[in-house]
Amino acid sequence: MAETKTVSSETIFTGRAVKLRVDTVQTPSGRRTTREVVEHADCVAIVALDANQNVILERQFREAIGKELLEIPAGGIDPGEDPVAAVKREMQEETGFLPQRVKRIGGFYSTPGYTTEYLYLYLATDLVPSPLEAEDTESIRLVPTPLSEIPNMIASGAICDAKSIAGLLAYIYLKKEHV
Amino acid sequence: MAETKTVSSETIFTGRAVKLRVDTVQTPSGRRTTREVVEHADCVAIVALDANQNVILERQFREAIGKELLEIPAGGIDPGEDPVAAVKREMQEETGFLPQRVKRIGGFYSTPGYTTEYLYLYLATDLVPSPLEAEDTESIRLVPTPLSEIPNMIASGAICDAKSIAGLLAYIYLKKEHV
């Protein structure tokens, strides 16, 4: 099968969180065009459930969209870090809880049209208090939310980012009975 | 409540699809740091159903991740374009079908940690053949897929991007009875 081929690649910017490159590609018909690619570390996204079947959601200001969102915990995997270790670290940093049980329940590319980021989806349970200090998490507020309310909050738009919707609905409707 | 404030903003790159800026922000505790923000047009994402209850999925190569994915149709809203017009145009360009019925069923930010993009989610039905030529769609192959198979394809990872998972599960489990 004819495929799109990468002809060349130019790095435009290397930042703290993202790297931007522009690839020149040749399409199956022979036409040349460019693709702008945002490189970002792979991440973990976490459905965290406490003993009372509350989902630990986080409310925080998002600079990119200029407003606060209510999301599931998530964060980048450090170079060489195991995803499960990243789940435990992010949980401690962002929620103050260390999960005693961490189980992979799925995963997805966040925006494959122009970013490289893949999100590993985990279920985190048996949460014990164990805070860990980190940069950039000072303005996160925790919002424990009954699992039974999640579908209505997604339907109403109260939860409105792709990873939270995909992760929570996948857990509730596809994985709950298996974990 | 103390909030993160934007102190200054510098545009790094303006491309065909993305614009990159770096904001300097001051956190509630007074610390200054930077946020890298990828600006991208808002988009439409489409759950398209034919008369036989097949979902129209698209298989295409994604340069950013170096592989083919199976996704729901989606695309950028042109400046000044109505989202419903964007749905009809994207459907014609990418699938060759013009939906006679287009209904908003939700929406979400794709990656609010570092991009501005919001995806308006639509259900498109009553599909009639009406192809429209466009750039960049030559290598899309259509994969009509029974709606009943979608949950298993998400659970197995055959469908593995956030917008497709969020859009399809929201339609199937939260919206189907209402549309």
- Considering residues with a beta carbon less than 8 A from a beta carbon on another chain, report the largest interface and each chain's count: A-B, 67 and 67 residues
- CATH topology title of the largest domain in chain A: Nucleoside Triphosphate Pyrophosphohydrolase
Major sheet of chain A: 4 strands, mixed
Question: Class of the largest domain in chain A in CATH?
Answer: Alpha Beta
CATH architecture of the largest domain in chain A: Alpha-Beta Complex
Strand content of chain A: over 45%
The helix/strand order of chain A is: EEEEEEEHEEEHH
CATH level 4 superfamily of the largest domain in chain A: Nucleoside Triphosphate Pyrophosphohydrolase
Distance between the termini of chain A: 40 Å
Give me the side-by-side strand order of the main sheet of chain A.
7-4-9-8
- Portion of residues within helices of chain A: 10-25%
Please characterize this protein's 3D structure.
2 copies of one chain form a homodimer. Chain A has 179 residues and is α+β, with helices and mostly antiparallel strands. Chain A has 2 domains: 5-39; 41-108 and 117-178, Nucleoside Triphosphate Pyrophosphohydrolase, CATH 3.90.79. The first copy, chain A, contains 3 helices and 10 strands. In chain A, strands 7-4-9-8 form a 4-stranded mixed beta sheet. In chain A, strand 8 and strand 9 (118-129) form a beta hairpin. The termini of chain A are far apart. Chains A and B meet through strand 1, strand 2, strand 3, strand 8 and helix 2 of A and strand 1, strand 2, strand 3, strand 8 and helix 2 of B.
